[in-house]
Design brief:
acetate CoA-transferase activity, Glutaconate Coenzyme A-transferase, globular, single chain, EC 3.1.2.1, 2 domains, NagB/RpiA_transferase-like, acetyl-CoA hydrolase activity, 19 helices, AcetylCoA_hyd_C, alpha/beta, five-stranded mixed beta sheet
């Protein structure tokens, strides 16, 4: 027990539950087929000591090997939205039997797509409520919802969460993410807490609300981004805590790729669009609260805003990323609300250096709040997310490559797109394959999997241009998307498909399609390595 740990755990009862050896915790409390909850959101703030100990224990005892089913240790794992590289280590050891919701990592993705790990996708704000409603563990006897508003405390066998401190009054001070941690702690029979002493104690950042289940669920009364209505700390039944450990393992977030030319063009299109909306008084001069997904394009868009001249900006999003720091640095960002601070090592150093001023502008909330459609609609959020592909009528695929292969999961994109004041999707128009530098188009006749329907998409942007789809009928949308967003190499192909479909329907159909040809691009990709039709002998 280090001196830093002792200074962080200021409650005697919690300090008395300190365990030095994580293997002792694993041996005492973990069993095959348990329902386990891990803190964390998009690779930040997840437990590290216990997952690593689980992997070592499994490897040492040769568990989960073929033919050794009687000795398995595999779990139903629930995470707010991915907990970091430790989850990938567990996937490598084949320790995850079932998983939900959003996940990030090469190994967990491999296990899902090989069928070793069953995965079901869920909107992030809805997932914690369904968990506490007993939807995912149906053998339980729950409290009678007509007689009590008490939340069940047995939907998880174990919750393992990372925190940065425990106050004298027993209040748990979380770290750089909240996610579904409040619900995990409420719904777990046993609780394990890891205190991470490699990062600062993040007291004062959090605005924590634990909602009741229907029919006792109350409205979220936030009317402004910076309005705090919850608690800075989490309070739990200390009798459920079976171990408190020290963690000296940092989160591992790779450095962002530098903004490329295409991402910069997308950012420029969006900024010009915002300026035009302000000019016509559809937006205030400081815009509406911004939501941005993760990834290079999303970072570039936010980075572009730093030099756009917009001031007094507000952010209401899931993940706070490096590019937001530039907005703090030039004084254009007033407040940022998220459920996770997903900063690279360099980004975290910048935040630490400016902690006294910048931390006052950051609010961390549970994903039931950060992703809540009620608040997204009330605050008038500008939602910006990246799809896998969009079809000519505006339906979007965000999860399943070629309709079948899971990427990461829906995350919060659908919640934001459905309820935002401005629902925007952005991506590059074409991507390479081993045989064709433009082998995959992001604009297709008909998406292979639908996550967001055309009813929700307002604006689609690629490096080619911006398609404003508001108020347009399907056939108008098709021409707008093809002519302004599709790559020039694919534009004639898409226009011909659309024209042929209209002719085939004699101009009478609402969304004209040729069902014999609408997936032809995918067949080309599988058979020839490019969505463009060509013979293998031909040189592109």
């Amino acid at each position: 027990m280090s001196a830093v740990f002792k200074s962080r755990v200021r409650n005697k009862l919690f300090l008395s539950k300190f365990v030095e050896n994580p293997t002792d915790v694993v041996r005492a409390h973990f069993r095959d087929k348990q329902h386990i909850g891990f803190s964390g959101f998009t690779g930040i703030g997840g437990p590290k000591v216990i997952p690593n100990a689980l992997c070592e224990y499994t490897r040492y005892h040769h568990l989960n090997m073929p033919g050794e089913t009687e000795r398995q240790m595999r779990f139903n794992l629930y995470v707010g939205a991915s907990c970091g590289v430790e989850e990938d280590k567990m996937a490598l050891e084949n320790m995850i039997a079932k998983r939900t919701p959003h996940q990030v990592g090469k190994q967990i993705r491999k296990r899902i797509n090989s069928g070793d790990t069953l995965f079901f996708d869920k909107n992030l704000s809805l997932f914690p409520q369904e968990l506490l409603s007993g939807f995912y563990n149906k053998d339980l006897n729950l409290p009678d919802p007509t007689k009590s508003d008490a939340l069940p405390s047995n939907v998880l066998d174990i919750a393992v969460i990372e925190a940065t401190g425990i106050d004298e009054d027993g209040g748990i001070i979380l770290g750089p993410s909240v996610g579904a941690t409040p619900e995990f702690l409420a719904g777990a029979s046993k609780i394990i807490i890891e205190i991470n002493t490699t990062i600062r104690e993040m007291k004062g950042l959090h605005d924590l609300v634990l909602q009741k289940n229907p029919p006792y669920r109350q409205p979220l009364m936030h009317t402004k981004v910076d309005q705090r209505l919850g608690s800075e700390k989490l309070y739990i039944d200390a009798s459920k805590v079976v171990a408190v450990l020290e963690s000296k393992i940092e989160d591992h977030i790779p450095e962002n790729s530098p903004a490329d030319e295409n991402s910069a063009k997308i950012a420029a299109h969006l900024i010009n669009f915002f300026k035009d909306e302000v000019k016509h008084n559809r937006m205030p001069k400081n815009l509406f609260p911004l939501q941005s997904g993760i990834g290079n394009v999303a970072n570039s868009v936010i980075g572009g805003l730093a030099n756009s001249g917009f001031k007094n900006l507000q952010v209401f999003t899931e993940v706070f990323q490096d590019s937001f720091l530039d907005l703090f640095a030039n004084g254009s960002l007033d407040v940022a609300s998220s459920t996770s601070i997903r900063l690279t090592p360099n980004g975290m150093k910048r935040l630490d250096k400016n902690w006294d001023s910048w931390s006052k502008k950051i609010i961390l909330r549970p994903q039931t709040v950060s992703n809540n459609p009620e608040l997204i609609r009330r605050l008038g959020v500008i939602a910006m997310n990246t799809p896998v592909e969009v079809d000519i009528y505006g339906h979007a695929n965000s999860t399943c490559v070629l309709g079948s292969k899971m990427l990461n999961g829906i995350g919060g994109s659908r919640e934001f797109l459905t309820s935002a004041k401005y629902s925007i999707m952005h991506t590059i128009s074409a991507r390479p394959t081993p045989t064709d530098p433009l082998g995959i188009t992001s604009v297709v006749p008909f998406v292979s999997h639908v996550d967001q329907t055309e009813h929700d998409l307002d604006v689609f942007v690629t490096e080619q241009g911006l398609a404003d789809l508001r108020g347009l009928a399907p056939r108008e949308r098709a021409l707008e998307i093809i002519n302004k967003c599709a790559h020039p190499e694919y534009r004639p192909i898409l226009l011909k498909y659309f024209s042929d479909s209209v002719k085939r329907s004699n101009g009478r159909m609402h969304e004209p399609h040729d069902l014999h040809k609408c997936f032809e691009m995918y067949f080309n990709l599988e058979e020839r390595g490019s969505m463009r039709a060509f013979k293998p002998s031909e040189k592109l």
